[in-house]
Design brief:
CATH superfamily: Globins
Largest sheet: none
Low-confidence stretches: none
Order of helices and strands: HHHHHHH
Number of domains: 1
Distance between the termini: 46 Å
Shape: globular
Mean pLDDT: 93
Length: 143
C-alpha cells in the first residue's frame, strides 16, 4: 500500500501514538498557568482519552468517539485565537517530542486547526451555557 493511500491515523502509528502525544500535551496544558484554568473540572486522563478517540476518527481511524462536537463541547468557553495558538504550540512541541516527522506534525496541526472555527470566539457574547448553572469560562491571559 502506498503512503498516499494510507490514512493519517495509520501513518501516525495508530492509537498508541495518539495516546502518547496526548499524554505529553495534557501534561503541558495542565501545567500551564493560563491554559490549565480551562481544565479545573476535568480529570486529565478523561480528556486524554476523549481527545484520542476524537482525533482517531478525524484522522481516518475507527469511529470510537461518541461525545459532543467541538463546537458544543467548547460553547461555554471564551477561547480566543491567542489561546488556540498557544494550545497548538504545546501540541506541536508534544508531537515533536515523540519523534514524528515534520510532515506528519504539519498534517496533524492542519487537521487540528480545521477545528478552530468551531472553537474560537471573538467575544464573551458568543459563549453559551449548555445548562443553567454552567459557568462561562473567560480567563484573561496569565502568561
Amino acid at each position: 500500500m502506498s503512503t498516499i493511500s494510507k490514512t493519517l491515523f495509520t501513518r501516525l502509528g495508530g492509537v498508541s501514538t495518539l495516546e502518547k502525544v496526548h499524554k505529553t500535551f495534557y501534561d503541558k496544558a495542565y501545567a500551564h498557568p493560563w491554559l490549565s484554568l480551562y481544565f479545573t473540572d476535568n480529570p486529565q486522563k478523561n480528556l486524554e482519552q476523549q481527545q484520542t478517540d476524537f482525533m482517531t476518527r478525524l484522522f481516518g481511524g475507527p469511529t470510537v468517539y461518541c461525545g459532543r462536537t467541538p463546537k458544543l463541547a467548547h460553547q461555554h468557553m471564551l477561547i480566543t485565537d491567542e489561546l488556540f495558538d498557544l494550545r497548538q504550540k504545546l501540541l506541536s512541541e508534544s508531537i515533536q517530542e515523540h519523534g514524528l516527522s515534520d510532515m506528519l506534525r504539519e498534517e496533524w496541526l492542519a487537521a487540528d486547526d480545521s477545528l478552530r472555527q468551531a472553537i474560537v470566539k471573538r467575544s464573551l457574547s458568543e459563549c453559551k451555557k449548555a445548562y443553567n448553572n454552567q459557568e462561562i469560562l473567560d480567563f484573561k491571559k496569565q502568561g
